[in-house]
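Quick one, T. Sequence first:
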Amino acid sequence: MNVRLMDVMKRKKGECMDTIKIMPCLDMKEGRVVKGIHFVDLKHAGDPVENAIFYQKEGADELAMLDIAATVEGRKTRLEWVRDVSSVIDIPLTVGGGISVLEDIDAVLDAGADKVSMNSAAVRNPDLIRQGAKQFGSEKITVAIDARRNNEMNSGFELVVSGGTQPTGKDAIKWAEQCQELGAGVILPTSMDGDGTQSGYDLEFTKAVSDVVEIPVVASGGAGKLIHFYEGAVLGGAQILLAASVFHYHIVSIGEVKDYLREMGLNVNILHKKNR
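Structure tokens:
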């Protein structure tokens, strides 16, 4: 354990007032859950409905489902996937992928999602965030921010889109600030450098985002050990801890994560029901 984390633990153990939530993520392609490393080399990781039921029983607080091929393939989110998954769970469901206009948000929410996550479309048309928040409520709008390290950016992080395949030349941290100003209710930053590696969240990136916004931040990309979840909350400043591979491949369970975080003095959410 590094000296920095030990120092933070001494100062913050038992002092974190945020209630931490655990959010498994179902990356979807061709009707199956998949997972890769750095957004590529995808492998099948099970059936989405079976995964959703399992994770709710395990104690997940929320669930994310991302249609990772929708934007690249130039299509909309598969609504049948949303209906199938939302019909078997009571925890809040965030759905992303292929959401580019207000009608898409309406359709995904109508299919059973509690929140939508937008990424590339919001970069192309930032007003979509404002319009979505105004029509459906900020609490329904999550903006996913994918980034990679680039020293030419003031923050050191460049915003990328289309599943991480296209650099934008925009500063990812400035974009996070703008998303909050436009009305986003949640920011979901993912570092391409850490995604799927199980080597830990990109704490520098997560913290940079959490430092400039007041809305909830989701730590995403790279969780592989129990300590990583604690780091995401304490060092990264995240209120929601998202993970995929570590749960899909049963490296740790959601129950083990929650027990560990409680032992470390953090508040862990125990309420699972949707407010509908």
